[in-house]
Amino acid sequence: MPVTVRNIHERIVDQPKSKILELFSTLATSNDAIWPMEKWPAMQFKNGLVSGSVGGHGPIRYEVQQYDPSGMAQFKFLKPEGFEGIHRLEIIETGHQQTQLVHTIEMRTEGLGTLAWFLAIRSLHDALIEDAFDKVENHFTPNKKRTNWSVWVRVLRWVLR
């Protein structure tokens, strides 16, 4: 039986959108200033961050559906089996000196995909996105932010090493 998943992470960063877009332009490059590749498998694409390019991170595979350098990247899941849908990163100006980061997953899972999502991938995903948002904020503040991982995330990362 298919399960509908909607997973949203949001964070307000006290910087103008133009400053966040400078970081956004590095996404999936060797000097990525958003993706927390220091702690997680790097996001990589065969042909770079352009529509139709295939890649992903670790065992999660996807295709770039849309990339807009003014603040949006959307990806279609290809793997794992049982994931059908998208994930999207948006950079939204909310004020003169404030920008909202929004990461959204909208998908349906089936079979082993549902089991994988609920047992492991959701927790790992949530930790990864919070690490990414921390990385963005930490570009602009001397007081480095670090979201603590749950015990379950630490166990999963130990098991998957």
What is the topology?
Layout lengths: L2 E11 L3 H8 L19 E2 L8 E4 L2 E9 L3 E8 L3 E13 L2 E12 L1 H28 L12 H10 L1
CATH class: Alpha Beta
H/I helix tally? 3
Strand adjacency order, main sheet: 1-7-6-5-4-3-2
Helix content: 25-40%
Radius of gyration from CA coordinates = 16 Å
Word description of this protein:
- With 161 residues, this protein is of the alpha+beta class.
- The chain has one domain (3-160): 2-Layer Sandwich (Alpha-D-Glucose-1,6-Bisphosphate, Chain A, domain 4), CATH 3.30.530.20.
- The chain contains three helices and seven strands.
- It has helices spanning 17-24, 111-138, 151-160; strands at residues 3-13, 44-45, 54-57, 60-68, 72-79, 83-95, 98-109.
- Strands 1-7-6-5-4-3-2 form a seven-stranded antiparallel β-sheet.
- Strand 5 and strand 6 form a beta hairpin.
- Helix 2 (111-138) packs across helix 3 (151-160).
- The relative contact order is 0.20.
